Amino acid sequence: APLPPAAHQALWNVNLGAQPQKPTPKAPHSLERLPVPVEVSVSDPRMINDGIRRYTAFQVAGTFALSGSTALTEFSVQRRYSDFEWLRNKLRLLFPGVVFLPLPRKQAVGRFEASFLEERATGLDEFLRHAFKRPGIFRPGSALVAFLTCPDSTLDRVRQDFNGSSQTLGALYREYSEAFGGELQHVRSQGNETGGGSVTDEPAFAETKAALELYVRHLDEAQRWASGLCEAHQRIAQTTAEVHARLSTLRDDDRRLCEAGAEVRSGLISALEQHSAVCTSVPSGHFEQLVAALACEHRHAEAVLEALDSIACLQRRVQEARRRVSEDEFGQARLRRRAFSDEYDAAPAQQPEAARSYQSHASGATLPTAEMRERKRDRIYDAWDKLRRRDPSRQLEDIREQLTKDRQQVDQGEQWLQASRMLFAGCEIRSFFAAKHEGQEQAQRYLLEAAARTSQRLAEVWSGAAAERAP
């Protein structure tokens, strides 16, 4: 079933408010933007048994250039599937709104079979090649560069270091802006030229997500029915061969009964034999190309949905920062009320005097040993700490400083959220439409040409058989 008009319109409304138009295959960010050639390949799956467990390692090799540099860096490492999972999760966390292709699905049974490992290596290779289309993420010290270059023996420690490090929203936003500064500038200029609507509109993104979820469900149904069509063509090929075998048996019976009857069936049997040969050469009727195109489109659509989820995750982080600001503001108001209450009117004047008298009394006392004098000095410092903690004015200063920092984090988080939505609406969704359009064109062209050739061969078979039987 086609997408409803409202859902289809929602997919385009998020695109800077532009009117629906035919997408072009040219994406805003592609390998053509790289100043130097890059390449990557995932191959040679090997099963490793360390005595405790078995796992598969893939050979990852190629070259890349750091952002802003033309010097090539070669790499050749072995990585497990879990390493790819960590990398993808890290990239989605650092670059919300950016589409990263999903990894091949897991499989509990037969995960060490050669066909499954080859299919998994192909999927991992596709994931990395798609990630390599974004030269901005190749920054020194980034997760992707560490994944590609660190030795196999130290990767676990590197992963722990990345997982344990905590960066502020401001630092992450600066890294995001540096990685996708060109794309964001392109989207802003295009929005100014077209006079498009706001790309940070919450309802527009909610409608887009709902439309994409419906689109993925329709892709599931289309893929399932296309697979059924392939199976139906395979059954037709098998059934045609069975009919040919049964008619051949009947022809033998005719020869035993009447020689003329055998000649009547010979033309039909010959045509069925050729028909069976044609069907056997294309048992799925060339519809496997359609199934593959739908599966590829389904993976890309899931990746787009996950990019929207990463924006929602960033939005939750910004909301958490807002909550901290609210708590700081509440604490500041509470301490301000305490500072001006009757209970603390005399405290600021009395506390320093009490501390001075306590210190002079302790210093004038005669202590027998240096150890006792050290203990007395520690008690004096503890008293000062208690007095300082009781002073609401000092707490107000600390809260003011923290409140200023938290407000800055909220502002930078809001800018990061807006930038991620701009990048998604202006680049990622357009790239998705362009890739979808190109894949559909290729699958349709191949299917029509292949079906035309098959139909022509079948027509020649049956027209030839009819010509032989013509009086």
UniProtKB/TrEMBL annotation:
<dbReference type="Pfam" id="PF00787">
    <property type="entry name" value="PX"/>
</dbReference>
<dbReference type="GO" id="GO:0035091">
    <property type="term" value="F:phosphatidylinositol binding"/>
</dbReference>
<feature type="domain" description="PX">
    <location>
        <begin position="36"/>
        <end position="154"/>
    </location>
</feature>
<feature type="region of interest" description="Disordered">
    <location>
        <begin position="341"/>
        <end position="372"/>
    </location>
</feature>
<protein>
    <recommendedName>
        <fullName>PX domain-containing protein</fullName>
    </recommendedName>
</protein>
<dbReference type="GO" id="GO:0005768">
    <property type="term" value="C:endosome"/>
</dbReference>
<dbReference type="InterPro" id="IPR036871">
    <property type="entry name" value="PX_dom_sf"/>
</dbReference>
<dbReference type="InterPro" id="IPR001683">
    <property type="entry name" value="PX_dom"/>
</dbReference>
